[in-house]
Amino acid sequence: MYSTELIRKFPEAPANPILFVVYNEEMVSDAEFFISTIHGDEYLNEHVTVIPYNTKVDDRRNYDIYIDPMVYKYKHSWND
Q: What is the model's pTM?
């Protein structure tokens, strides 16, 4: 699965905020671009928070968590 395939599967009207986890800080802007292109800027601003994999989340909201497939690719590569 590619990142955009997963993003397309985000619910149209999420019951909970979405936490989208990407591999690193450099991938945050790309993910935000794809989300806003596919679902719109308003959707991104209202429903989605994009964070790098190693970020600690102190927020206690009940998130629906989606992990970018690229996280698994890079975490299991020789580049770690």
A: 0.87
